[in-house]
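Exercise 7. Predict the joint structure of the components listed below.
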Amino acid sequence: MKLKIKRLKFLAGRPVSMINQNTAKKMSLHVGDKISIKNKKGKRLISIIDIISGFLKEEEIAISEEIRKILNLKNREYVDVKILEPPHSMILIKKKFGGGRLNKKEIYEIIEDIKNNALAEIEIAFFVSAICNNSMSLKETKNLTKAIIRSGKRIKLKGKIADKHCIGGIAGNRTTPLIVSICASTGLIIPKTSSRAITSAAGTADVIETVSRVDFSIKEIKKIIKKTKACLVWGGTLGLAPVDDKILKIERIANLDSTAQLLASILSKKIAVGSKYVLIDIPYGKSAKVTKVQAEKLRLKFLKLGKAFNLKLTVILTNGSEPIGNGIGPVLEMKDILKVLKRDHPPKDLEDKSLFLSAKLLELCGKSKKGKGIEHARKILDSGQAFMKFKEIIKAQEGTIKKLQKPKINYNIISEKNKKIKHIDNKMINNLARILGCPEDKAAGIYIHKKKNNFVKKGEKIFTLYALSNEKLNHAKIFYKKNQAEIIEFR
Amino acid sequence: MKLKIKRLKFLAGRPVSMINQNTAKKMSLHVGDKISIKNKKGKRLISIIDIISGFLKEEEIAISEEIRKILNLKNREYVDVKILEPPHSMILIKKKFGGGRLNKKEIYEIIEDIKNNALAEIEIAFFVSAICNNSMSLKETKNLTKAIIRSGKRIKLKGKIADKHCIGGIAGNRTTPLIVSICASTGLIIPKTSSRAITSAAGTADVIETVSRVDFSIKEIKKIIKKTKACLVWGGTLGLAPVDDKILKIERIANLDSTAQLLASILSKKIAVGSKYVLIDIPYGKSAKVTKVQAEKLRLKFLKLGKAFNLKLTVILTNGSEPIGNGIGPVLEMKDILKVLKRDHPPKDLEDKSLFLSAKLLELCGKSKKGKGIEHARKILDSGQAFMKFKEIIKAQEGTIKKLQKPKINYNIISEKNKKIKHIDNKMINNLARILGCPEDKAAGIYIHKKKNNFVKKGEKIFTLYALSNEKLNHAKIFYKKNQAEIIEFR
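Solution:
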């Protein structure tokens, strides 16, 4: 059926179309049914139906902005609309749900249908459930990784391409900008794409955004890397693994992690940018994402899958029980990074971890001899080369380290007694930072004055809370008071 | 935040609200986030956010019709809108997903959140996945049943209340109107609520709708039952188990069946109408929903759960390999029923099964002595009492058996050889009927002239296809040609 576009400018987070209730009746369409919309050039997109009355005419269809952009549709343009039958891939998902194994063709079909919106979010939820309950074999995981790479864009670069990834979960812990600056100084190509914060106070992309742009096109990234050997950008707009983004969105709702999806998600993005040498950091421990046993299992899976793709992988297990660095929040974490780079009272734990991981990557790539990586990395840092490299990258990304935002208000949390700190909880400190406004309020967050095993005297500062509004600061104070025992433990 | 209702009259199948993009920014709301909307009387409803620009003003909110009705909102009325945090019940769902057991309080919390839309469809999908993968214990199933009853309305009736239920899947098989007519003739109270077709050619509600209304309020149903001892209505509008309806909708997408959900779904509706005596029919076999082994397991679970609720249950396993009756489709199935009631060339299989099940229910309720039920039921049928009762019910439901719709076109499928029929497939014959227009096109469907073990001579009719449009008939002819070997097998 031919229907005329009526522009309504709405976003639904997924392709949604609205049609008049009489049109729906004529086409036997019900709310939630899927249709395929074809534009003049023959390009198709699958969309979900909402039904509207009194506002749209019978011959009209209102499409969400997601659809308008992809199909490049104009107001009052005609499109061809057809009802869509439930996709065959739902049968495959049910097979996996029942404990079956999926072959390459079947996994490709599911991923292709997710890409084309032939599978709705609820159907993707069943796919996520299926692979969480019935773990994928190495072969299945390999095919899932391939399918995800195939569904996205790739970046072709020349040179020795290296990358690092951390599975996350640790407050602060902003090693990436340091590792990239140190390692790119040796001539390695590091096309680093990062995420924004999901449940934490800041992602690397949020932190870099305090000093430069992070949203670039593939073409722009190539230019930045040509100039500086590296980049520090947000992966969200690049389309390297659009299917992965959709699956992650669903996984987050249930706070589920499928190991196969985690592996495929990480490695597909590395392969898409042509990385050959990859360092993976798995922080484990109390208040981290995984226990040591889980971390060890994950390490073996990473190594096996990496081998299947001919990657040179080093997988490091690091202690992730406590926050790393002193600043929690985009600006505060950037300040920690700059302290390390400027050799100006750097947080020791952040510096040590960054040097350790840089060393491992330099050794993996043959830039340092075995056992000599730390020395090499420290030399690059101490000589100011790393700082130079960082400024180069930020400049190429149209930024400057001079433009850091300032917090409006702060509040000190003072110790009431002489005590020794036993533990600061990653999850709770992240929650506190979120309440203060992170990651949207760049300058909001927490400065940790004292850490595990430090003594605090009565009247000494433990934390300083930063916020942009009194309202948020007050909320944070209430949260702190209520959850103090879970945020920080004393001996 | 106070926002003003702008009426847009749209249906989204779930409570959806649209707000202006600047309002979204102010409230830090993103597409897919949940909000709570409170009306003047303080009644709250949870809704999902879409974002729109250029059409809505900043102080406005457009709500889907589902919300308008529940909160009884008027155009330009102000509502109080708040962002909603992810529900605690998602943690409980994750617990079940991981194989844990849920206690009564936890199950109640999940069901309450589904009822109040605090859990979104994707989250319900994870709940469905969890209970499909990690089957619920008897105790959990009992609590699920209780929770579902608690979330819905109830009907209070006096007298000896009986009911029957079939798990479905068999083409034709319209025993319910016959069983209800026979058993209500003995004075039993049968508040029968039925469903419409989901994947089959017709549900009991679709069939009854060919001769009377089926959409009544609880108040109206009580009146009908007071007059006639029974009713034959659609359960969809009654709100006996609204949560169950939501869960079933999600299950259907993945074509999944959780046994716990199936048991809770069926028994909760019986308990909600106060039934004490319940007959359950489980058809098994080739092209049925379950195998004989599965049917036997299900039978035991029904008995255990029934006992927990003090129900008198009889669970019967019946052969469901082949369609039952000759007509497939609402009008054609009603014709079969009327033939049985009028004692006018009745389809023997339909009559036999209906008498058998009626006998079991009469014996269960003590209306017949053990072993004498068949005789009793046949007497009621032969004497015309059942027909009288049926006409009484239909009249009370504002209908008449004289107003059956007629099909516009028909087409005979003729045998090309002398053959003996080995099997007619339930699923395929249902698919064929759907293509002919069932269940919306009431008079569409299939008349089965010859059944399993019948001989057909060359030139004899096997099926007659009925449709309301040539287009649908042609589609059905193409489908038949393509899938003939799967629809009907010969020896």
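Discussion. Residues 162-396 of chain A form a domain with the Pyrimidine Nucleoside Phosphorylase; Chain A, domain 2 fold (CATH 3.40.1030.10).
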